[in-house]
Amino acid sequence: MKNDHRLTDLLADLEEEAVLEVVRKRIAAGDDLMQILEECNEGMRIVGERYEQGEYYIAGLIMSGEIFREVVELIQPLLVRSTDQKSSGRILVGTVSGDIHDIGKNMVGMLLGCYGFNVIDLGVDVPPAEFAAKAIEIRPDIVGLSGLITASFEMMKETVSMLRAEAAKNKLSFPILIGGGMIDDQVCQYVGADYWLKDAMAGVRLCQSLLADHR
Ligand code: B12
Predict the structure, then answer these.
(1) What pLDDT is stored for residue 206 in this prediction?
(2) N or C: more exposed end of the chain, with fewer CB within 10 A?
């Protein structure tokens, strides 16, 4: 089936059953799994806009999150099978303190796992000290922070500075990536991270190249 924006529109309209039906059919037809995720992601962006414009309330956000989770549940096992690769590095991820959005972070974690990375996920609303303590304990190759709301930026800044201070004390060094829909170069500079991404697959590619450079 071709991309005719139908899936994006159905998700944006919160048509749960119809979304899942289209996704099942497209999986059965052998459609590109990443393309399906991409179209759903676009639907989520529209949900956000409708929420901002007062057309949807918080229940709409919750519903969209639930639908996206169900889509990922259908796709994840197939992606794992199609990309199964050897372990290629340890990545610590989590959503920063004060932020409970986890769909994007889970997607990044899932894709990194599919590409052979060992992903340690601290979950959501993770305080800077917890990130730092875990980094010292597991000595990751890369740390990835997720944040979807404006209030996350301050927490990302604190988390980055605590991670750097603790890493220096313990003679560790790892690049820090930040990701989320509102992240840009300016935020990255403010927060003091090494790289920023708005896309999970770009994150996987970056991790691959960072580790290749390292070896
Ligand atoms: C679903 C949703 C929710 C759900 C989240 C469910 C869940 N389990 O995550 C619920 C209902 C809980 C929620 C709550 C809130 N939300 Co909300 N939410 C959304 C919505 C519609 C979709 C987010 C999403 O999952 N997108 C799909 C995923 C796949 O995209 P993504 O997260 O951006 O991730 C991609 C990339 O950014 C990247 N990425 C993400 N993280 C990382 C990390 C790394 C390391 C890398 C490499 C890449 C990467 O990869 C992903 C795939 O490519 C967005 C709108 C939007 N489009 O962003 C609003 C949005 C983020 N929410 C918003 C708001 C305001 C809230 C609330 C404050 C509402 C309220 N009044 O309570 C609360 C915040 C609670 C809190 N303290 O965190 C605003 C934020 C605005 C702002 N300036 O801060 C948004 C932008 C909506 C809007 N336009 O107004 N929300």
Answers:
(1) 94
(2) C
Chain centroid to CA 42: how far?
A: 14
Length of the chain: 215
For 94-120, the pLDDT digits (tens) are 999 999 999 999 889 888 888 889 999
Q: What is the pTM of this model?
A: 0.91
Q: Is the CB of 175 under 6 A from ligand 1?
A: no
Task: Write out the two tokens for 132.
Answer: 């730092």
- 147 close to 155: Cβ distance less than 8 angstroms: yes
At 8, the amino acid letter reads T
In short, whether 100's Cβ falls inside 6 Å of ligand 1 is yes
Give the SS3 label for residue 21: helix
Distances in Å between the alpha carbon of 117 and those of 102, 110, 199? 19, 10, 17
54 CB within 6 A, ligand 1: no
Calculate Rg over the CA atoms of the chain: 18
Lateral strand order in the sheet of 195-197: 118-121, 90-95, 142-146, 176-179, 195-197
Is the CB of residue 45 less than 8 Å from the CB of residue 103?
no
Atom 64, ligand 1: which residue's CA is nearest? 149
Give the C-alpha separation, 110 to 108, whole Å.
5
* Span from the CA of 99 to the centroid of ligand 1 (angstroms): 9
Regarding the beta carbon of 140 and ligand 1, being less than 6 Å apart is answered no
**96 φ, ψ (degrees, to nearest 5):** -70, 165
Please work out whether the CB of residue 112 comes within 6 Å of at least one atom of ligand 1: no
